[in-house]
Amino acid sequence: RVLASMDLLGDITPSVKIQASVSYPLIRAAIQCMTVHAVPELKPKAVSLISSLYTSYPDLRENILDDTFGTLIPYLGVGRKCRRDVPLPSEAGTMESVNVMTALLVQLVQGCAIMPLNSSPEAIRSAYAACISTADDFWARCMGCIGSARAMRMESDADFVCVMVGMVQDLLQISCSKYWPSASTILIRLVTNLNSCMGLLSPDPVVRQFCVDVLGKILSAVHKDSARLATSADRLDDVVSEVGNENISEAAVELVLKILQSSDASSAASARLFLCLRTLCEDLGKFEASSQNLDDLHDHASELLAAANDTLSSYAATSCENTLSQEDVTLVMKVTVHQQFLTAAPAMLSWLLEIIDSKKQ
């Protein structure tokens, strides 16, 4: 009954307005359900419900994050035995088990993706900024958990460092899943937040070491993906050739959207929406950087939004069977992910070199 009730609440929350007096107890109950290890089916339902409440009630987002961190952290596991017991949809009908914090974060960020009703450049940026601010707020709280524990001379910071390292591993693992395009964006936002007084610029050596470890893991993944894409260039050309777009990054995004048509999962619809919104904002940014005419920018923004909505409508209205192998799907996803990391890689490398330079310690 509890599982059925949570499913029902998650379905009706976006369309039925709940009063604050009801929503607060509901939020706390859902967060408490994420701490129950004895009933494995309960956690994913609770994560989905919290994500639905977070998306539907922007005014409550700060409270949801505060309550989540205040309640959930003691139940995440200790040391390197952090639990990975929340299944997320993965490729070929399989499930990928991740930490509950990872599952919550990707669904919160992806759930915030809503196409703007206004075609102005400001409206488009604001729509995507909701996803970015969620990732930033989440990571800022994570970094604060390490710093505050150290300041109070507690031992729990070492455990939470392991939790965060585990989250990074989870995100790297699912970033090449067609269902979770938000994972790579979340990692990029973590990298951005590391270059701050709570990260690489922190006076605490434990915090700085954590930042170095994370940057090393991400750069290592970028290097491995570069090598794999280089050796698979011919195969990749064959896979994306059917799209008819000479820009391989754009062709890969189009192909991912097409691949998502083969799935009826709700996470597929969420992935399509997030991917379209992110691509819309990136295309607008590229045009803005190359144009000096404000009128041209507004006209182009309107055209981009109309095209994005048409794309969403066409892919949502039809379905098709995915004819690509699992290896080809992963290869295409790596293209969409790799381009983001490749842009950030020089800055990450320079930060690493700076912090390990003994003259600058």
UniProtKB/TrEMBL annotation:
GO terms for cellular component: Scc2-Scc4 cohesin loading complex. InterPro entries: ARM-type_fold, Scc2/Nipped-B. It comes from the Eukaryota. GO terms for molecular function: chromatin binding; cohesin loader activity. GO terms for biological process: chromatin looping; establishment of mitotic sister chromatid cohesion; establishment of protein localization to chromatin; regulation of gene expression; replication-born double-strand break repair via sister chromatid exchange. This is Uncharacterized protein. The lineage of its organism: Eukaryota, Viridiplantae, Chlorophyta, core chlorophytes, Trebouxiophyceae.
